[in-house]
Amino acid sequence: MKYSVLFIAIALIATAFIAGCTQQAPAQEIKVGVIASLTGPASNVGKNMWQSAQVAADEINAKGGVSLKDGSKVPLKLIVGDDESTQQGGQKAATQLITGDKVDILVGGYSSAVTSAYEQTVAEYKIPFIVTGASSPIITHRTDIDTSYVYHHCPTTDSYGQYTTTFIDQVVRPAVNKKLGAAADRPFRLALIYQDTAFGKGVQSAVNNTITKNKLNIQLVSQQSFKMGESDFRTPLTAIKAAKPDAVYIAAFPNEGAPLITQARRDIGLDTIFLSVENNDNAQFYKDLGQYGEGSIIESRFSPYTAPVGTLADAQAKFKNSYNAKYGVFPDMMGASTYEGIYIAAQAIGNAGTTDKAAVRQALVDLNMPQVIEAMNGGTISFSKDFRESQFDLWMEQLAFNQTIGECRPNIVWPDNLKVVDFVLPSWYKPGSA
Amino acid sequence: MVDFGILLQIVFWGVYAGCIYILLATGLNLIFGVMKVVNFAHGEFLMIGAYITATIFFITGINPYAIILLSMLALIAIGAVVERLCFRPILGTGKLNEIFLSIGLIYIIQNSAAVIWGDEWQSIKSPYEGVSIPIGSLNVPLDYIIIMVVTAGILVGLWLFLKRTKIGREMRATSQNRKGAMLVGINVERMDIISFGIGCALAAAAGTLWVVSGQVFNPYMGSIPAIKAFAIIILGGLGSIPGAIVGGLLYGIAENGAAYYFGGIWKDAVSFILLIIVLVIRPTGLFGESGE
Description:
The structure holds two protein chains of two kinds. By secondary structure, chain A is an alpha/beta fold. Helix content of chain A is 44%, strand content 18%.
């Protein structure tokens, strides 16, 4: 009996000693929480984001991981949180990652509505969060909570709405006037159809503001909205056709954008130029669109099927090939920014030399790292001092139908320093009205 | 001033949407009429029907309109299994059990479909894509004409089955008075399984027409159409098949009209406003009888 008590006492002391040692030991791994929509309507994009994050982490870990202040090299450990494409799911995933898995940093977030719902938790626990998918500016512009730990690494609806509207004014409008033989001051007739969410309304607001602010000769002849996840667009398209537009700008997710263009061309006979936002530039979109995508425009920063010539082409090809070898498909641009998000997280923790949240946040404030696979303003990734947004170089692609593969493929048509071919109005194009 | 050509187009798109709602709601109503069960998972049978059609089409390349029969037959079998294993044990134990069982089925069926087919959005191309027929001021794609004809054909077939066959008469008798039907020797459990199977087959037909019309689909597509189907059968009258048909058409036209005149965000809301108005004026629905 006496020996048993002694044995238990020694065991308890040893356990306490080991536990104490564990607490004192330096970090064995850096826990990176990746919030993505693995299930629900946005799962196609969500999987791409999660898989891209894994490709980045594998590359970083293959080089030994992240160097910390104490000289140790620590690998990244990714933990995924599925936001289920819903606000409740996002809240659940963020809470689990922050309080359950105790992650050091968060990367990801797709739907702006979902991401903004769990930002409150991120603010409360002061976890550095690199948002790589949600494009509404409210993510870092909102003032109801402290967003100082949130860093936005994807273009906002403000930036690409403005960019696309400028392209319409500078490239599409003159081409339509030339086809019509109209005077240069003929107002361009633009229709807008947008998802009734923060994302869609953000694009709508950006288009309206750009036209007003720059006094562009563009007239918004129809503005139609639809619910997220809608699949039947025939009636709003009928309304758009009745407004006789010269082009239609679509703010939709890929699962909405492809049927929308198909229904417009096939069912409504709306033979015009469709302009889509960048999140549509993924392999499934091209597959679903088929021949109906001919002549369409996509604003982009990363495409599965093209890249701007120059130094980034090799880096993009390497990422696409690694991803394709691992998962059998090509990554999309939300995957690309999430891939970069992991590199940004690693760089910030490396610069801070610790996983201390406040130190990592300061490292993100001071960040100035070379661009990874996407073209950045000035060739470097850094976050603006006011709203903590990184600045991307965007481009516009025009789709051409490839008979052999039965799908469209993109060519960069703008800006001039990146363009491969000129923008052309297809032979079947019908302008709004003279 | 309303443009008559545009009005005609909106009505046309409303009738097309109505065709899918009619098939879904008629199946739901048939099941409710005979078994008096509330099945919130009915939209998942539409989803399975869509996937069966798409899968056979991807593998064989045969005309998807021809696959509709295979899809319906498959769903008769699946529906019979679901009725036998899930609904029959809880029949008569209270509406709450039925509701929670069907909600559970939604998750099980959706996740099973995601495992089998993946949860990416998919679409198929109709062989008649690009073929249009001029009707008056409209240039109507052939697919939508076929969808309307197929829907009418299925409804006529169902009507003949219910009116002219012994099983159909027994189903109607069970629907009117379950205990009375048992007293005269009708095997009501057999009627349950047949009505559930046919109800699921009608959902499969709706799913097939959904995918053939070029609409995208994924494992979570069934939830919203199922909610609309419930609204339609309440609008038309619980247990009334003519009510489901008229309700489906009204619903399709109302939501498309609302989308045109008030914007897409009113699409669902206006249809439910219509439902509330009808229920205030006639609480049993358009064709319902008191006591349902």
